[in-house]
Amino acid sequence: MSDDDAGQNDGDADLLLKTKPKTQKPPLYKVLLLNDDYTPMEFVVHVLERFFGLSHAQSFELMLVVHKKGLAVVGVFSHEVAETKVAQVMDFARRHQHPLQCTMEKE
Ligand code: TYC
Hints:
Elements: H1 3-18, E1 29-34, H2 41-52, H3 56-69, E2 71-77, H4 79-95, E3 101-106
Antiparallel strand pairs: 1-2, 1-3
Helix pairs in contact: 2-3
Bound molecules: L-tyrosinamide.
């Protein structure tokens, strides 16, 4: 490679390194399920299957994590999808008169 070529390539490398991406990744939101003393375990398992697309076995395992630890992340979504999941879970729990709580927070 000639000295001229080397100089040209250095210029390209600088350009690539200094170019900032113009698009930003949209923020993601964790959806959390909270433990309580009254919501039946089977109801929580059903919620996880129905609204989070988990298998029965995955749902049972995750329900036990919430039951033992107090809360767990049950999914990570865009702001709009996370809001919808929280609203669906809270509405379903309220309609069945269970105190189950579901919230979201920025990842
Ligand atoms: N702690 C509840 C019980 O013993 C079960 C439960 C699990 C409730 C997870 C809420 O998010 C929850 N019946």
